[in-house]
Amino acid sequence: MNEIPENATQTAIMANGRSFSYNELQTAAQRFARVLLGNGADLAGARVAFMVTPGFDYVRVQRGIWLAGGVAVPLCTTHPLPSLTYVIEDTQAAIVVVSPEFESVLAAYVLEHELRLVVPGNDDLVTVGVLPTVPPSRPAMILYTSGTTNLPKGVVSTHANIDAQVSMLVDAWHYAPTDQSLCVLPLHHVHGIINVVTCTLRAGGTVAFMPHFSAQGVFDWFLDMAQQPRRGVFMAVPTIYFKLIAHYDTLPNDQQQALTAAMTTFRLMVSGSAALPVSVMERWQTISGHRLLERYGMTELGMAISNPYRGERRAGHIGQPLPGVTVRLADEHDNDVAPGEAGEIQVKGAAVFKEYWQKAEATRAAFTTDGWFRTGDVAVLDDGYYKMLGRSSTDIIKSGGYKISALEIEEVLRTYPQIEDCSVVGLASDEWGELVAAALVVGQEATLNTDELNRWIRDRLPAYKVPRRYVIVTELPRNAMGKVTKNDLKTSF
């Protein structure tokens, strides 16, 4: 994970108006490893929690932790203190690394609990001595799941797991030294850490950081990339693409044309971490010339299924298993489902995580007796491509004896002229088991007649899939990766 390309003077990181070469990154990471080690020889799997601004410092700190033999535990820079302390306490982190701008958030807590506080600074005077040899089987990182129903669980990935995730994607998505990727994603999730930063650097490319998202800032980078010899790579969640489209629509025609021309020079654009609405995919293709590559992954396994780099990228589908990943669809008894039937996505492969941190029972429950990881996501195999139906706990609604995909209903609702966005949930019902309900975001000037909407949707969906309750909301509650938090949404009804 710390390879230096043949041209070590090539730019690895661009952040805050500065460029850093691979040589500078490697040297800085080694020096920070020595800072962490102090007089010791090996952190030997000690957990190091870090709350560091995205950019050069983030990457050198993360790599320094790995070089010192520690386990990297990235903290979300926007989470409240109780969420941060939960992760620190759950992982039993003895060392906490914070950027100067976050010292005020955690310093008092670290002092009170007698932990070691490290603030990245000028480590140029640190002598780089011998660093430990870290076996691939050793844990490298703990990332926390969303925790939609219970407290978040720590997902432990080894160095070997991460290497498998990165190697697979570099080959499948054709990363190259000529790539320049823009990181606008939070760096406590696998999407930003692996897909954007680690894969790009593994290939010898350049990562540009934008710590605070702005649609105009992204567009300015697009325009700048069109003038560079490097090929642009952009990865985001559907919410970001939705915001970019909305901003694009406010621009004058000449600026729109310039942006479209700039985006056609890009090598690759990817969407993930939440279901990509077909309407967003089609609109983005119109304005950018790119058919977004949609893929499927999880904190526990990195990426597992993807539309092809070359070949048909099918709207509404997550694609086919990536090389090195074995996928099956299974019923509630872990038996393979019949062709064409919906089932839980179950995965095997070297990229699959080691365990949930200090949760042996949860780890056992996550795997079948013969080693398949149960994702909890439901899909169907449609003419060779997997089509996601939703999360079994939140997106599969059991109503009147039917199993209904909330995602399918959402796709139809989004095509209604007055609806800008929506989310469908199941509400507890004594009569139906669950009642199909839809939260709708409508345009500021729009008026919505739900009786007319119901008549319209009945021409497009069977009666049992038609929502029985609606609520109009100004926005949908989302987590840091843009996924709608449906359990929070249910309170709107």
UniProtKB/TrEMBL annotation:
One GO-annotated biological process of the protein: fatty acid metabolic process
Domain AMP-dependent synthetase/ligase per the UniProt entry, residue ranges: 9-357
Database matches in Pfam families: AMP-binding, AMP-binding_C
GO molecular function: medium-chain fatty acid-CoA ligase activity
Region forming the signal peptide: none
Residues of the AMP-binding enzyme C-terminal domain: 408-483
Transmembrane segments: none
Domain of life: Bacteria
InterPro entries: AMP-bd_C, AMP-bd_C_sf, AMP-dep_synth/lig_dom, ANL_N_sf
Protein family membership: Belongs to the ATP-dependent AMP-binding enzyme family.
Name the UniProt record assigns to this protein: Acyl-CoA synthetase
